[in-house]
Amino acid sequence: MGCHVYLFACSLLLLVAASTASGERIVEHTFNVRNWTLNRLCNSQVITAVNDSLPGPTIHARDGDVLIIHVFNESPYNLTIHWHGIFQMLSAWADGPDMVTQCPIRPGTKYTYKFKIIRQEGTLWWHGHLSAIRATVYGALIIRPRARNSYPFPKPYREVPILLGILTHRILIHSFIMFHGSRFQLTNSNAVAGEWWNTNVMDVDREAIALGSGPNISDAYTINGLPGDLYPCSRHKMYKLKVKQGKTYLLRIINGAVENQLFYKIANHKMTVVAIDACYTNPYVTDVLAISPGQTVDVLLTADQPVGSYYMAARPYAPVVGLPFDNTTTRGVIVYDRAPSSRKPLMPLLPSFNDTPTAHKFYTNPTSLISWPLWDPVPLKVDHEMFVTVGMAVEACPPNTTCLGPIRGTRFSASMNNESFVLPTGLSMLQAFYFNVGGVYTTDFPAKPPIEFDYTNLAINNNLPMLFAPKGTKVTKLKFNSTVEMVLQNIAILGRDNHPMHLHGFNFYVLAQGFGNYNPTTDRRKFNLINPQMRNTIAVPFGGWAVIRFVANNPGVWFMHCHIEAHVPMGMATAFVVENGPTPETTLPPPPADLPIC
């Protein structure tokens, strides 16, 4: 292909389906990442996007395909792309988290991600994995069964990606939680009171991190990039899905928001859940979904209502008292064929913002479809047990710096087992692992918190030293093919919360979930070892716990972190270093020649 033809094809999004010598199908895309002007909410805003679109391009593939994605960074920011939920078996170099598996792709440079999809089907997604860039750099990654295989449910009439996201034209960074003993209240900083930022989300995010202030607040939620008619200047910027009465549609729903868990509902319609996080489930009928950032849900929707128009809507699930959040609602519309345009669509009755029972019911009820050929039974022998607390913390403000943390002279931090994670700067952790370079990370991440305490009792905030967590780059080293069981326990430091925790490189079994402090004597009786749901992202219940189990059968360095964007730079993360296996087929290959250099 000639140079000019190649560049022309790149600008249109190159998609090639070819075959390798071994018969593997190759799916190839080009991502041009650059700043793009978008008109939303009565404003003209510059965002960073892929191929001038929001959301970015949808990748369609099949189990067994090889994906090749050429990423050209034409933006002014460092970036990486993460293929959320892809196992990356023996291709950890393509996983994407900055300074974990690679150095960032710097402005004006490129990197080609190449990986094979192995034993996966369903709805996943891709997104930027450096700072707030994922707010606008994201898209769907849809994996269908191999050519001669079928879905474990009747073939739908049509498949429809539904990507839930946010718009962040203005971000409030002057509000934060002020600590008063064991009580918290929303307070404004006099230095920046009443100031709203109308600038690029990356710039504002960088400043918020430096000040150590609270989470960024979006202006709107979106469905497939459109806010819907409840927002200003958005009457005609609403997603519309046309359906035929009697037909069944597969909705592939993705929560691409950076901060909020979301409720999703369609007026007068039931949905049948058939997969979560690209893992098939037993059919589960519901009229409302709860989806945390990073999660996906596949549902079958039958257009079985009278001909007309019906709103689909999403609003946040936000149970934390006193924490500011975007309390708006986005909506799209489902329009039946031949529906009269004069009739106003019906609006669903959404759960309240703090409806924890509804959220918990949805998060806990789905179970795995164990008749699926790719299902692996739950391993019963555990080699590595961990009890890991997750929650907020504080750190001292750097000298000669103004910080807006919860205590005077501090800024917000976060931790797992009282260790606040810091990414390395000179060499990625995976490079250090492969080349056996010391000094980049240590393998002493604690398997339990340094002290036991009443984890979900707000009175812990009266013990000031407990609020501080030391900084470090501590990981857990695992033998190849070992089984890990982890209790994830939310804590009440700086307030009770819920945290969506994402594990790279693996799916895990969700054995049990509950509220309050985990009790190993009574709560182990609740373990589902027969058909537990499988996920890559778990919404640890508000003021509660979850128990997960996974097999470390993939050599490399695998990030585990909260999927609320603001919590990662604060330190709510860790990593697993999985040793190579005994054969060449279980050994990490060398890095690609074009791997970015720090």
From TrEMBL:
InterPro entries: Cu-oxidase-like_N, Cu-oxidase_2nd, Cu-oxidase_C, Cu-oxidase_fam, Cu_oxidase_CS, Cu_oxidase_Cu_BS, Cupredoxin, CuRO_1_LCC
Main location: secreted
EC number(s) stated in the UniProt entry for this protein: 1.10.3.2
Annotated Plastocyanin-like domain residues: 33-147, 193-338, 444-581
Record SUPFAM superfamilies: Cupredoxins
UniProt entry keywords in alphabetical sequence: Apoplast, Copper, Glycoprotein, Lignin degradation, Metal-binding, Oxidoreductase, Repeat, Secreted, Signal
Any single Gene Ontology cellular-component annotation: apoplast
Superkingdom classification of source: Eukaryota
A molecular function GO annotation: hydroquinone:oxygen oxidoreductase activity
Catalytic activity: 4 hydroquinone + O2 = 4 benzosemiquinone + 2 H2O
Subcellular location: Secreted, Extracellular space, Apoplast
Matches recorded under PANTHER family: LACCASE-7 (PTHR11709:SF9), MULTI-COPPER OXIDASE (PTHR11709)
Family from the record: Belongs to the multicopper oxidase family.
Protein name: laccase
Species of the source: Hibiscus syriacus
